[in-house]
Amino acid sequence: MTLDGWYATFDFDEREKDFVMDCALFVDQNAKFVYDFFGIESNRREKPTIHIIPTKDEFDRIYKKICNKEASYNVPSWVIGFASGDIYYLSINDYKNTSHAFSPDKKKEAVCYYKKTLVHEFVHIVHEQFNKEHGCCNRSKWLSEGVAVYLSGQHGVLNNDNDFNYAKEEAFGQQGNHYMAYGLLFRYLTENYPKAFVFSLFESAQNASESFKEELYGKAKKYYNSVAKEKK
Ligand SMILES: [Zn+2]
């Protein structure tokens, strides 16, 4: 069945209705903040559909098809959502078959994480809309995942209790999955540099020079490690 939210349409199994309504409310509550960050208007006529996929098996099949992976490709067990025009997102009812499995006493935290991850995927959609409107083409992982982690408030990235123990190659590399590092780098960037400069980095990878990345990395590392030390 479908549910027509203000910023997204949900497509899901009827048995999940109450939970999905709760998620839809959460997306609607956070979407304006995301659009405001990017300084663009939501286009309700082209709002994305969020497909809630009942099982990890089915999710993996869809992932491989849409992301052009070989049939033999093994989708990692932590991958539970992706954005590609629409959002495809695994139902929390099948988290048991992923690396996000949780025990019943941790359900509240799991639900909170689930909703934030949904907003993370939504940020990718809005970022893509921003890229189109502004002719931007920088798809560096630290920037696109960083803005999604930051704006969705994932992984406690808005707290000051994170050590920053990432090598520079991890923080800026395209290969790893150092989401916390990307989120913390982006947080430092957006809270300490002018917005126009942040947007210029979105524009083209060339605007993020090696010397700038060196500077950002050094400053962010120093900042987070000093704050984390103070707290201990
Ligand atoms: Zn992402």
How much of the polypeptide forms β-strand, as a percent range? 5-15%
Q: What is the alpha-carbon Rg in Å?
A: 18 Å
What's the CATH topology label of the largest domain? Glutaredoxin
SSE class: alpha/beta
Give an account of the 3D structure:
With 232 residues, the chain is α/β, with parallel strands linked by helices. The protein is globular and about 50 Å long. The mean pLDDT is 94. Helix content is 53%, strand content 9%. The N and C termini lie far apart (49 Å). A five-stranded mixed sheet has the order 1-2-3-5-4, sandwiched between helices. It is built from eight helices and five strands; from the N terminus they run E-E-H-E-H-E-E-H-H-H-H-H-H. It folds into two domains: 1-135, Glutaredoxin, CATH 3.40.30; 138-232, no CATH class. The longest helix has 28 residues, at 107-134. The protein has helices spanning 17-38, 56-66, 107-134, 141-152, 168-172, 179-192, 195-203, 210-231, and strands at residues 2-4, 9-11, 49-53, 81-84, 86-90. The relative contact order is 0.10. Helix 1 crosses helix 3 (107-134) and helix 4 (141-152) packs across helix 6. Zinc ion is lined by residues 120, 124, 145, 148.
